Amino acid sequence: MTGDRVPRRSFLAASAASGLAGFAPFAPALAASGGDWGEAFATALKRNPMLLGWKTPPDRLDTGSLAVTGAWPAGLKGRFFRNGPSIHDRFGRRYRHWFDGDGMIQEFAIADGRIAHRGRVVRTPKLAREDAAGRRLYNGYGTHLPDSAPVRGPDGLNAANISVLHHGGELLALWEGGSATRLEEATLAASGFKNWGPQLSGVPFSAHPKVDPDGTLWNIGCSLLPRPALVLYHIDRTGRLIKAGLVDAGPMGLIHDFVVTQKSLVILIQPFLFDPARAERVSVLDAHAWKPQAETRVLVVDRADFGKRRWHALPAHFGFHYGNAWEEADGTIRLDHCLAGDPGILTETLRYVMTGEFRASAPLRYAQIVLPPKGDGRIAGRGEEAEFARVAPAVVGRRHRYVYTLGAPDNPEGWHFRTLVKRDLERGVAESFDFGPGRIPEEHIFVPKPGGRSEDDGWLIGTVLDWKKGVSGLSVFDARAVAAGPVAQAWLPYPLPLGFHGAFVPG
Amino acid sequence: MKRIPLLLAAGAILSGLPVLAAPEAGGAAQAAELTVAVTGVNSGKGRVYVALHRAANGVKFPDMKGAVAGAWRKANKGGFSVTFAGLASGRYAVNGFHDANRNGDLDTNLLGIPTEGYGFGNGATGHFGPASFDASSVALKEAATIRLPIGYGGSAGSTSRESNR
Question: Is B3 helix (H, G, I), strand (E, B) or coil?
């Protein structure tokens, strides 16, 4: 029997070498700051209703027909999905970072002149085990539990809480530390992790895949444990893997987004770096350190050959999202970026909002990054406050004229977005719509009009929280006339937690 | 890759007889026996490999190259026991895995994370990595039994913690 041998591969040797063997319980600094954050948040919410967007909703929400104001465009039919951290509190314990809560899919089904809403918590294996145990078992991205249970891999912590992807006929809830989670379209129930192919089970699949106008999908995966590495994916329009690659990119931190051009994948490695040796004792977030003296390293990988790579340097900066990128004939790459001078928004603002406290941080501003064919890149044209950049699907990887973002011009209410902005890169101008006091808009995505001709011939669809009225709504804009305000809005009878990203599935 | 034959284990796979361990150099009494109670096997597909390790034999636990004895058994949904006989007394750590596709190895993904079931003695767990020798081990005088729960990818390695409570 040829198989009756000692296994050839060293048993878990790769993991052992990473220095992560064993698990040491540790009381983090935050735990020492006393008490559950839930009480502090509940008290703050009474004083400041703006915090409604960080309150935990019920596991299920249903509304058969939303109240519509204005004229909903007849051609805008289908399903609009959103995802975001939602279950911040459970078992009398509140997470200590906005990014930790279990994901919840919000679905707006638009058909026959009616809009119905369903909200469903994503029952990941992680959440199912916690519910069975009746307590939180696992560390979140920014929360370290003194008594957290060990995991076999990143999917043991998978909260499926960042975005939604509908590709190759499959609906997926996206996280960025591990696998995508399959969702049954009829019920939105979680039905296991997506495995894209051989040796890809349990490998991270990021939450900002880019669908090329040719229908194929590009994505990165960012692994921090058991070892830092980048994974590259190319998936065909039916959802079948074309190829995958592994890049040892040197020291890195969690990478949230990337861009594609028609020739290249462009990945920015900001100097907010993860230290695996610290990860046993603190949260994933707190195992990162900001190195302002270091540079942002930019990796450009040839789409046709993952082995062909070039590197650029940029001044140190921090940001979550890029809009789009294109590559010029001489190899120059230009990309949109919403960036700040440091990661304070992540380490301060979005952490302490969980206690109901607003801590100011450097705002994210629109910039264009220019990478020459060789040599250092530069950050050009830093502009106004901007985040959640989106472009029309037809221009992904191609030269684009318009970028849609949220903005927050001189908002006297403090930290949150209040405007939807359309930026015209050719004319160097922007137009915006102010949602007004008491309203917090979220990411708006571009949906092309059937038969639309120009880049901006479509709608922008997105959610908004009206914290004064205590309800959430759905807005639709004509993308050619953003400043004119929404052409229609549809209101729920309840608020939704503020979330991250969504997808529109025409139908 | 190079395969290292483990002749003593090979003959025992179907016999159901105790596995005879290789005599240790300078070993005195070779009369002790260790029973490994494997649990948590999720299907009858393929085989399960169970290995015994000694401390300080030059190979870092849980590298299978450092095992002092090992045995393949047909996978049995739920579990089974395997007894290693003719052992010197002392401390033994145990690990094992479920080779569901019978390729002779513990399969891993691109990042080295196992994609087949595996486990450590006493249900010991590591965090994003292996459990320690000490936590996975038992002291053997004449006879002893040690649990070896097998767990699978995507599932947290918390089975033993929960069952211990």
Answer: coil
Nearest to A270 by CA among A291, A248, A240, A286: A291
Residue of chain B with shortest Cα separation from A196: B109
ipTM of the complex as predicted? 0.84
**How many residues in total does chain B contain?**
165
Q: In angstroms, what separates the C-alpha of B151 from chain A's closest C-alpha? A: 9
Q: Residue A129 belongs to what H/E stretch? A: helix A125-133
Cis amide prior to A271 (ω within 30 degrees): no
Distances (CA, A) of A164 to A104, A108, A185, B117: 10, 13, 12, 30
Query: Is residue B158 pLDDT above 50, yes or no?
Result: no
| B96 compared with B59, residue with greater pLDDT | B96
Q: How far away is chain A from the Cα of B157, in angstroms, using its nearest Cα?
A: 5
With a CB cutoff of 8 Å and minimum separation 6, the contacts of A183 are A105, A122, A171, A172, A173, A189, A190, A191
The length of chain A is 507
β partners of residue A369: A335, A379
A471 pLDDT exceeds 80?
yes
At residue B128, the pLDDT reads: 80
pLDDT tens-place string over residues A406-463: 998 766 556 689 999 999 999 999 999 999 999 999 999 999 999 999 999 999 999 9
* Residue A71 CB partners (closer than 8 Å, separation 6+): A487, A488
Residues 6+ apart with CB under 8 A from B132: A21, A22, B61, B124, B126
| Interface membership of A20 toward B (CB under 8 Å) | yes
The answer to whether the peptide bond before residue A198 is cis (omega within 30 degrees of 0) is no
